[in-house]
């Protein structure tokens, strides 16, 4: 009172200045304490699948030429690679020939196997899987598929050659860069996402794919030729760097109305993962180590209640993680546990109730999800105190808890999820309904730079970013809200 009335000459202007200052201070406080809903406005348009005759879907020329080539890690440590591809006309050879880029070592041959499946009125091509083992770390390899299978036009006529680089040895301060894409599909937007990912100047070395691959199940009778076209579309990336697979709901392909009662049939025939290496009994949940990261993949669409195989596996798995060896602990699960969009709301809730306390106890750094076709990043929060009768049923800030990132914004045919709950909950640090991808650039055991890139921007623009401080080696507050 005295301050405002102390100078008669300024009695008219001071309150205005003061109110303005107060308004600005309060505005800043709102930004600091709450989450941020991006004001970025994008053109509203429907996501449309690329036509089947698009060049991105074009099969390689030549009789029985290998197509849909894709690779993923083939063991627990990163010294093996599963090479997969499809031949359409005849089985051909399941062998892979491979050799190091440098050095005088001779070419080696690994033997694989092929499988086929039927789905309603569709019969698959010959799906080959070959796990090449005992690779050297940090080494570029070339590999060839389609070896000597075409006797009519001459051996090797349709051989296709690709390359990949193995990761550095597993260790605590190994820099490594992961990309992240979810819910990709095969629309023009999907193509934009993949193109932006490929051109990201941080040069991601391995992609964490968070489920929902082809969206073939949106077609009549789950037209599995759209599984084929999707695999041809992404070959330009996944033939050269491993994509780590997580099952999503669009991998279920459960359609009893057309006699398809076995969930995950196309997905599990086409995409093999090294689940046995981590003691898992199912390809739908497993773990790998890669460089300085330990990655746990969970299945939102498999049983996870007490006594189930997934429950037992995860309970035994988390204590095995040695953060001195792999400081960064990342969990991938398709359906988000924290999501403030009005889509798939609370779908991840039952799994959160089952497992969240384990993840907090294990000091997981990042939980990566998809499913909701938008982007969201949370504060470090947990909601593990509730015991039915105590009323403590809201999320609270918790520095032992992971950051939850939802990145189901790959660009599929179902379009963007742009309807958000309001007001934005405190635990939601940033959210925006745009298509894009993310990068986790691990520097050492304490720091990792994280960024999200929307498709409307240039390749290097970071629409959202934060420095992750490792929960074991540098467990200080890394909230972007508290920074400001
Ligand atoms: Fe989904």
UniProtKB/TrEMBL annotation:
Domain Purple acid phosphatase N-terminal: start-end pairs: 66-166
Cofactor: Zn(2+); Fe cation
Keywords for this protein: Glycoprotein, Hydrolase, Iron, Metal-binding, Signal, Zinc
Record field: catalytic activity: a phosphate monoester + H2O = an alcohol + phosphate
MF GO annotations: acid phosphatase activity; metal ion binding
The Purple acid phosphatase C-terminal domain, residue ranges: 401-458
Secretion signal, residue range per the UniProt entry: 1-29
EC number: 3.1.3.2
Annotated ranges, domain Calcineurin-like phosphoesterase: 177-375
Database matches in Pfam families: Metallophos, Metallophos_C, Pur_ac_phosph_N
InterPro entries: Calcineurin-like_PHP, Metallo-depent_PP-like, MPP_PAP, PAPs-like, PAPs_C, PAPs_N, Purple_acid_Pase-like_N
Coiled coil start-end: none
Similarity-based family: Belongs to the metallophosphoesterase superfamily. Purple acid phosphatase family.
The protein's name in its UniProt record: Purple acid phosphatase
